[in-house]
Design goal:
3-stranded mixed beta sheet; two-stranded antiparallel sheet; mainly alpha; 543 residues; elongated; 56% helix
Length: 543
């Protein structure tokens, strides 16, 4: 984006006024879906997130090192102009200008460009992106081979073997380099006789690039995708790769509300202890009329949890009613005095883990403990552990020179966009936890779980170990269950128990070892003094 020195205050005022005049419904219909990468991720390796060859969209447009590619965008625009059926390219840009507010609403930052500049920027970028994606269009089980202009032949390579082609491919899937997919759809709409044909072509392009760059195999049971609901290319990859978690049962949701209520009231003095005990009682009951009663009061309890109780309890009128309950429970609170930090111990258990690297033994350690690793043909949701067979099931993943960019930008997109559990981030933490060294990567490769197209197993290990930074940790039930079962099995092995005992109580306790050494040396000194006086050799001889 342009620097602050070029900031146009008048344009900013006009844009704000225009946004305020728009209907409020636009904000709910067009949520933000293109973000700047969080600084905590960007600091690790900026080149993973910043385009290196070509810029799409407003975040990196007009960067000096990328501006040379504008001539290729113009060449793609000329080709697009020849394919338009009913209007000129100028009219196409005007069509994009009509969607200026929708375009701006897709980005999380203020765009310091005029509407005219933004519409032409998007028209040029969309032309080049469609030109590039055409080589991946799937038709009748193969690639739809379209002629590429001689001017772009060294950039767009159908075989995908040229290094510049792969550099552009990586830039296409970077989070900060996305453009709204509805613009590509509209551009194709003017190149085909019907909107359905345009959607079919766009979907074939997206499926083709997924097969080319996705580390995971294509699902057998593909979801029924509506192109109109896809935000951008990276968003499409995320929808294809990351499984949607099933919504918990209504009783589970209600029980979670009561658990949160119990935790909220746990640290409070006064009569709110009564509410804590009530929630604790209802949480245990789940039969007959109690189930209907829980369903009835779940929402009021949820509201009660969010109330500022510490403030409300100091209100005089409320304090009068809470005082009798305080007297009822004050004896219990005096009898039970938790240790330091005990009041928040349960909260700490229920909170997401604070460590960045997932707590699970490595592949080598699990293999020595008798765990076997087997590949699956599904997605992340197929990860499981069978304690009876001592087998851990992991999806097949193919890694090449483009994979790290895809994985890291999916993590960044999920961290910015997902409102629920960060499933993909949790998966990368799992892989980071079980792969520590090249030996771990080699073992998974031999088991058919990792298809390695990199130079060595060491590079695979470095790829996963470099992904130990994330925005926030969340609980993903099916992955948490796998980790719990694996740790339970591993910690139950005798050689693991002995190893931990020796490490903790013997090798890990230097005070204990120092004491033993001091006692041993004192004994030797005493024995030496005794023998110098009583001649131990004669005593031994007499015995």
């Amino acid at each position: 984006m342009p620097s602050n020195s070029t900031f146009d205050e008048n344009r900013w005022v006009i844009q704000i006024s225009k946004n305020l005049e728009e209907e409020l419904e636009d904000d709910t219909q067009n949520p933000v879906n293109i973000f700047n990468v969080p600084k905590t991720l960007m600091a690790l390796d900026p080149d993973i997130y910043v385009p290196q060859q070509i810029a799409f969209g407003p975040y990196h447009c007009f960067q000096p090192e990328l501006f040379d590619m504008e001539r290729y965008k113009i060449a793609a625009a000329k080709r697009t102009q020849r394919n338009l059926l009913t209007l000129t390219f100028q009219q196409l840009a005007d069509q994009f200008l009509d969607h200026e507010s929708r375009i701006r609403s897709c980005y999380d930052k203020y765009l310091n460009y005029s509407g005219q500049t933004l519409s032409w920027m998007m028209a040029l970028d969309a032309s080049f992106l469609l030109e590039f994606l055409r080589v991946y269009a799937v038709k009748e089980g193969g690639l739809l081979r379209r002629s590429v202009t001689s001017r772009m032949s060294h950039l767009v390579d159908i075989s995908g073997k040229k290094s510049i082609h792969n550099a552009i491919l990586r830039d296409v899937v970077k989070l900060e380099n996305q453009i709204p997919l509805f613009l590509l759809r509209k551009m194709l709409e003017f190149q085909f006789s019907t909107l359905d044909l345009a959607d079919d072509m766009l979907l074939s392009m997206l499926m083709g690039i997924y097969k080319e760059i996705s580390p995971f195999k294509l699902k057998q049971d593909l979801p029924n995708f509506q192109v109109a609901t896809v935000d951008h290319v990276l968003g499409f990859l995320y929808q294809m790769i990351v499984p949607r978690l099933q919504i918990p049962d209504i009783m589970e949701v209600e029980d979670q509300i009561f658990e949160e209520a119990e935790e909220t009231f746990e640290d409070l003095s006064y009569g709110k202890q009564f509410l804590k005990e009530t929630c604790k009682f209802l949480l245990k009951m789940n039969k007959g009329p109690v189930r209907s009663f829980k369903k009835l009061i779940a929402k009021p309890i949820k509201v009660a949890v969010k109330l500022p109780w510490k403030i409300l309890c100091n209100v005089p009128r409320i304090k009068i009613f809470m005082r009798p309950l305080e007297l009822c429970f004050s004896q219990d609170k005096e009898d039970v005095k938790p240790e330091d930090g005990g009041s928040s111990s349960r909260n700490n258990i229920d909170r997401p883990p604070l460590v960045e690297e997932i707590s699970i033994p490595s592949v080598t350690g699990l293999s020595k403990a008798g765990v076997s690793f087997l590949p699956t043909n599904g997605d992340i949701s197929t990860i499981s552990f069978d304690p009876k067979k001592c087998a851990m099931y992991l999806p097949l993943i193919s890694l090449d020179l483009n994979s790290e960019v895809v994985l890291r930008n999916l993590v960044a997109y999920e961290a910015c966009y997902a409102s629920g559990p960060l499933v993909f981030s949790r998966y990368t933490e799992l892989m980071n936890g079980i792969i520590d060294t090249s030996e771990d990567a080699e073992l998974l490769r031999e088991k058919g779980i990792i298809s390695n197209h990199l130079k060595s197993d060491e590079e695979v290990a470095n790829l996963w170990n470099g992904m130990n930074k994330c925005i926030r940790l969340t609980k993903v039930p099916f992955l948490d269950k796998v980790i719990e079962d694996v740790n339970k099995y591993y910690n139950g092995r005798w050689h693991v128990k002995i190893k931990k005992f020796m490490k903790h109580y013997v090798f890990g306790s230097w005070q204990f070892l120092t004491l033993l050494a001091a006692i041993f040396l004192l004994g030797l000194t005493t024995l030496e003094a005794f023998c110098s006086v009583y001649r131990c050799s004669h005593l031994v001889y007499d015995i």
